[in-house]
Request: fold
Amino acid sequence: MSRLSRGAEALLPPRGRRSRLGVGATLIVGGGIVAVIAILAVISLVWTPFDVGEINAAERLATPSTRHWLGTDKFGRDVVSLLMVGSRTTLLVGLVSVGVAAVVGVPLGILSAMVPKWWGEVVMRANDLLLAFPALLLAIMLTAVHGQGVVTAMIAIGISTIPSFARVVRSGAIGVMKTEYVLAARAAGRRPVAIAARHVLPNVGSLVIVQASVSFAIAVLAEAALSYLGLGAPPGTPSWGRMLQEGQELLFVAPRLELYPGVAIALAVLGFNLLGDGLRDRFDPRLEDRR
Amino acid sequence: MTTAPERTAYPPPGMPPADVVRVRDLAVVVGDKPLLVDVDLTVRRGERVGLIGESGSGKSLTALAIMGLLPEELHPSGSVVVTGQGPAGGERVTSVLEAGEPGLAAMRGRDVAMVFQEPMTALNPTMRVGAQVAEIMTIHGTVADRGAAAARAVDLLDKVGLPDPADAARAYPHQLSGGQRQRVVVAMALANDPALLICDEPTTALDVTVQALVLDLIVRGVQARDAGLLFITHDLAVVASVCERVLVMYGGRVVEAGPVLDVFTRPRHRYTRGLIGASDLDLTRPDGGLYTIQGSVPAAGRFPAGCVFRNRCTHATTTCETVPEWDGPGPEDGFACWHPVVHRG
Amino acid sequence: MVRGLRTGSPAGIQWCTVVELAIAVRDVVRDYRRPRTSLTRPGPVVHALRGVSLDVARGQRFGIVGESGCGKSTLLRIIAGLDQPTSGSVQVGGVEISRLPERRLGFLRAQLQLVFQDPMGSLDPRMRVRDIIAEPLVAQGHRNNLARVHELLEAVGLQPESADRFPHQFSGGQRQRISIARALAPDPRILVADEPVSALDVSVRAQVLNLLDELVHRLSLTLVFVSHDLSVVRHVCDTVAVMNRGEIVEMGPTDQVYDRPVHPYARQLVAAAPRLQAALAGRTAAVLAAETLAARTVSSDSVGSPNPLARPEAPGLATTTAPRDSSTPTPDPTPDPTPTPDPTPASGPAPKDAP
Reply:
């Protein structure tokens, strides 16, 4: 397309956009999946088909039936109930860790793009150091200090996600800082903080949203991994990651115990990704005419 | 208006020069938006034809349609016939809109070559420029072997005026200046002696002092090969310096065509006249301002039905809601306007 | 056209003249260091400006012409306080700005505003037009600027409803009008325009030039107009500085520089520019190229001779080929196949409709 002159390029529909599936459809499907998960999590606070704390040896590894829609696990706990309660942990870990990462990483990225180049490099090398530090090691250290728990997992995942936000936002912000509209804002007398808030942040917003939806997926999987290693949700606190871990030894006996939490995680990741894409397009004024 | 230059091969003396490209009723749509409508265009051997228009006029799309390079989502109709030299002195006729990719690949760079606006993106940054010029010849088998191609590449770089062509052949694109890069692109385009050279705003990205030299290079290149030239630009002065004939496009249609001198000194279409007035900064109204065309160029596909210019035209009437008939002896000379400018004498 | 009425002062006026200076630039040097490509050696130094001095009097229309990389944009940014010179001094309205940090340039923002080249790139795509235009006002602590925004929109020929729309909903010419409205918002005395029409369609360019002309006249602004196109500068400005490789190589009244360029580079710039009437009179690409090359090696005895490519007094006269100065190395006049055109000035848009 680069061979088209600027005039001809304007004739073509925008590329890289979801041109078949409308902007609205992405948002509705993604939002719908996320809403269902969230509603299940809320309902689980007041009601679940069975009590997940109750161990029922008589009904161990029951196959799906009208009584237990998705069967039971090796302790005889109802899988539907486990999934509902587990969604709370999953959502919480995902949202809080991504929130922590964004709240620290986005300003860090913008800052490192706006300060003199030399300082930006210092910030980014520190960022690289953090990136090179294994999240697992961080989790183990935090567990040693604070003990095993969901909060520890959230903080460990959140901190280790900061660099990816900072890096993506910085590259976007450097691009924005080079635009003429930032030059125009400087010429208008805008102060750096106002430029960061009014020009840079809105224009890297779409990057943040996409990065958040990707990071959320990674956080959900990381929580599963930490729980699997016994560093996340403690035994007795159901989470989708824990369910995967507990089902693993029965992989060949009752593969459905791996399937259900796996599908749930995949759905949640898909839902957040679609929601992220949809939000990005929804808030892009250049696509306004297409809505 | 031009007489056939002296040539021995084809056509026989006395015959008009052969068409190298003949476009008839070309239309291009994207979705339900028309981007090009009823475009007729002919370029003969040895002829230099200008295609002028503003953004959204469809001039670049016309060039891409001739090259068979339209993006997938655009749907062309009509006919585009390119005639070049086939193997063994015969001629090769390509119906561009019907031809498959192999036929088009054989045509591109051999029968028709193109020079784009941005010389940096037209060259492969990881390949030495000599190798890029040589490659275009080995692809089409117009040289005996790779050694001959490399030698001829240096020769071509010399012909386009690169100082120290042997050194230049070993340079990478980023080591050359913008003007030098565009010279390399011209060398590549002319490497296989194409029957038609299409230049799409070839000097818009260049400095004005470099532009003068590159324009000269292009004209001399096509003259030496007796090739046809289709020169696309928004700059009327450049067209007048380069071409003999001109087509004026607006809103995806050819609104006026004819010899450069006639069109620019006695424009008939209201748009052509407005364009000439607006682009000539030496010409001012009694109040000292420049002549203008009211409003702005609509977005592609948003031009009014009927005469595409009527929403900006001071002479528009209800008649203009109907598409104006082409008025003239042929597609190469005439205009499509209900209220044309009338010239005395 | 008010050019000529507003003669301003000749370029090169000295420090203490009665003419009030809007901008005074003295010996400004700006060096950049390119990013290093080797670990051991520092990056090469680029001399963007090598000792530039100029004066712009109040009410003057000052053009800066040059090709890409000549330093004109750097100079403009330094004048606008968006970049710092390596050495030298820049005074705007009598105040030295070259050593001030950006946060202390508030007074400059109220006095001097910018119009940029790219009408899309200089408007934040995520801001509504009213916020874009009000930005200089907000930066100076004004609130509730909607009335002013509407006034500015009207001044640049846009509908008041435009205020609620986004930049992408406008054409290039309209966006440039928005950009001009923003520049005028704080009621500046000096307007600095960086290639404001070079990204516009031909039919829209004339509108924007007329608008700038009218506003500069009506608001008694001082204009600094940067362009690569000498003919645009000639139309707009009374004084022009020609820049090449970080230096001003020629400066003077626009007509003088255009008609009788002295410096070889200025001659080349004039010679290389294709012009419609001259081209129709037979100045083909070959002539253009030959004259450009000839101007490079111009002999000193032709200096000051009238430029044969000078603007004709009337469009009709353009069709007669001016005799060339014999001392100028005349290029090979390629035989021209085009017949001499009808000398009646039917070319222009001057109303010539027969009844």
